[in-house]
Amino acid sequence: MQHRQCDRVGVPLHKTIPVRMRTESGTICHRYVRFLDLSEGGLKLSGDLPPPDEPFSLEFNARLLSKGAPKGVEEVHLKVEARWQKDIYGDMWVGGFQFLEADEEQDETIRRLLQEHNGNSRPRAQLEKYLNVGLVRPGRVQWYYPLVSELDAEHIELQSTEALPLKETCQLALSFKEANVVHKVDAVLELRHDLGSTSRYRFTFKNPSERLQKEIQRCLKLGSPGVDSAA
């Protein structure tokens, strides 16, 4: 098969959508995967159920991934091949996939997706990072050590093998190991999605302190020194 020769410089997407993975032998796998980044040469995905171990057609509705998808283009079929893959947390995996052959229409879809997300992406912590995150209880903090898949000054998304006893609103505690300071912030649970033995949680911060925002920005700018890599 012919590989597309493109620079692998991706833009962040951070979208979880349903996809089909169709192999040349006719096997079809239905999955929920998280699109982490996208470039002209390939993409980075994560999920809980493993992808096929051979080249496959990645099929999905482009409008679930981005409102900027070209009009009239609903289903996208991209031939991809895994270049690397590793387990990261519980049943979760992350992998890089290279595009094989694609037609002009699909190339245009990729360009439109890149164009939209290049203009709207925000600095975020990379996937595969662990952070001290706790739930504030009366008189104490119940600490966890989850995998953080997304972090910015307004949101945090994490994955945990422990079920977090959460209500719609709660108070979180974050501790960045270098600063050795506990930051408390009110948060709203926006999403909970169970993935096998792990669960994904997404929170929006309510009125985060200027100190917390500066600490997050510092960590992102310096390559997330306050968190540990899963590698």
Provide an overview of this structure:
Strands 9-8-12-13-14-11-10-7-15 form a 9-stranded antiparallel β-sheet. The chain folds into 2 domains: 11-120, Beta Barrel (Thrombin, subunit H), CATH 2.40.10; 129-229, predicted glycosyltransferase like domains (Thrombin, subunit H). It contains 3 helices and 15 strands. The chain is 14% helix and 51% strand. The radius of gyration is 19 Å and the shape is elongated.
Q: Give the SSE order as H and E letters.
A: EEEEHEEHEEEEEEEEHE
Mean pLDDT: 78
**Could you give the distance between the termini?**
31 Å
In CATH's first tier, which class of the largest domain applies? Mainly Beta
Q: What is the percent of helical residues?
A: 10-25%
| Low-pLDDT residue intervals, each spanning 5 or more residues | 1-9, 224-231
Please identify which CATH superfamily of the largest domain we are dealing with: predicted glycosyltransferase like domains
Percent of sequence in beta strands? over 45%
The appropriate CATH architecture of the largest domain is: Beta Barrel
Annotation, overall tally of beta strands = 15
Instruction: Name the strands of the widest sheet in spatial order.
Output: 9-8-12-13-14-11-10-7-15
> What's the alpha carbon Rg, rounded to whole Å?
19 Å
Main sheet overview: 9 strands, antiparallel
Query: So what's the overall shape?
Result: elongated
Q: Give the quaternary arrangement of the chains.
A: single chain
Structural class: mainly beta
**Continuous helix count:** 3
